[in-house]
Amino acid sequence: MFFLEAQIGLEVKNLRAELKLTKEKLARLSQIDVKTLRKIERGKRTEKIETVIKLKDALEKNFDIDLFEKAGIKIVWDLKDLDQKALDIIEGDLLGDGCITKYGTYQQEAKDKKYLEWRGGLLNRGGIKCKIIPTKSKSSYSKSKKPFYLLYTHSCPAFFELRKRWYIKNSKGKEIKRIPPGIKLTPTALLHWYLDDGNLKHDKRPGKIGGRPLVRLFTNDFLREDIKLLLEKLKKDLDLSFYVLPKLNENIKRGYVLYLYSTDLFKFFKVIGFVPPKEIRDCVTEIRNGKFHTFKEKWPSEDDWIKILAKTKGIGKLLKKRRKRLGLTQRKVAEKIGVTKHHIAEIEAGRKGMSSNSFNKFLEVLKLEKRESLLATELVKVIPKVLKV
Question: Which of 130, 128, 129 is nearest to 87 (CA)?
């Protein structure tokens, strides 16, 4: 199905009027019947993309006019012609709740229309036109009866090829989504996977009981073999180590969740960005118990960063650099914090981690603002730029 019916239909109607063609003549030149052309011009859904291509070919051959160019639509014939960033976005979404339909269109649902408009804008830049409409979600969490929106693209031959990569028929003849063996995970793909089907589980317990937050990626619909492949790809392509719960078991076919090892938390947000995309940070992700949750909650809070950075490899180097800049000795810092000089030396050398409490004291002694430490192992001069985003 060609899902930009209204746009294409209006363009055909305008061109026909401009060229002073009757419906009958244009239908004859295009080798389609008049009834079909009438449906197209009214913005009715066409039978197949091939029908519109017949119109395009007739206009190009007889009048040297490119219908798709006039309508501002790019038909991607081959996957290698698809803008790489657009492909990364789509494949990241396919790891989550996105889908490629049997009609060769990409579709995605969400609660927040603004979020889909942002995503559609990114795809538009890659030449893929999108439309957003209200819809009734089939997803389990749609039982809340809250408004839902659907983003869909026009049909492209390349999307049929993409569907063949991602979908296979199971023993019952039903098509199911699988992870393509040749998939390459990029920062863009990971970001969109996380936005779509990941979250940050905050540990809100006070004091020493509270631990670091957990990054989770939900893969409930993928098979055990797919999970193994994803773990390998995350490590190989992005150097991120995840573990899976429940543990991979021959008796469990699907229903897994990927958990990031806490030692890679800083690295994870370095890959996808230390802050959420500003256009969507306040967009709604879900409504639970009457409370609205947004994308910014998928990123660490100030307290979370303290817990993360206290154990982040390389934080000691930043603290040492700051201590020397202030002209403080290890002994002086140790006295102020209430630990031994040897303990400070071990932390600065990266041989020992810190509790959140000790890290907080370190920041106070070294006159470091808590938020200033967000880029820990990065160049300090970059920090202000990130915080202004």
Answer: 128
Of 247, 267, 298, the residue at which a domain comes to its end is: 298
State mean pLDDT over 202-212: 66
| Structural domain span for residue 214 | 188-298
Q: Are residues 333 and 375 in the same domain?
A: yes
**pLDDT for 375 beyond 60:** no
What are the backbone dihedrals phi and psi of residue 383, each rounded to the nearest 5 degrees, phi first?
-55, -50
294 lies in the same domain as 309: no
Q: Report residue 340 as tokens.
A: 């031994």
Per-residue pLDDT tens for 296-305?
999 988 778 8
**What b/e sequence results for 131-153 when a residue is b if at least 16 CB atoms lie within 10 Å of its CB, and e otherwise?**
bbeeeebeeeeeeeeeebbbbbb
39, two tokens: 């449906």
pLDDT digits (tens, 9 = 90+) for 29-81: 999 999 988 888 887 655 566 788 888 899 999 999 988 777 766 667 777 87
Q: Interhelix angle for 341-348 vs 330-337, to 10°?
A: 110
- Sort 160 into a burial class: Cβ within 10 Å, 0-12 / 13-18 / 19+: middle
Q: Total structural domains in the chain? A: 4
Listed in sequence order, the residues at least 6 apart from 139 whose beta carbon sits closer than 8 Å to its beta carbon are 97, 109
Binning pLDDT at 50, 70 and 90, where does residue 252 land? Answer: confident
Side-chain-side CA neighbours of residue 269 (13 Å): 29
Dist. CA 38–CA 61, nearest whole Å: 21
Q: Are residues 202 and 294 in the same domain?
A: yes
Structure tokens at 65: 């006019």
- Which residues are CB-contacts of 12 (< 8 A; sequence separation ≥ 6)? 26, 37, 40, 41, 55, 67
Does 97 fall in a domain?
A: no
pTM: 0.76
Decide if 102 is inside a domain: no
User: Who contacts 38 (Cβ-Cβ below 8 Å, separation ≥6)?
Assistant: 23
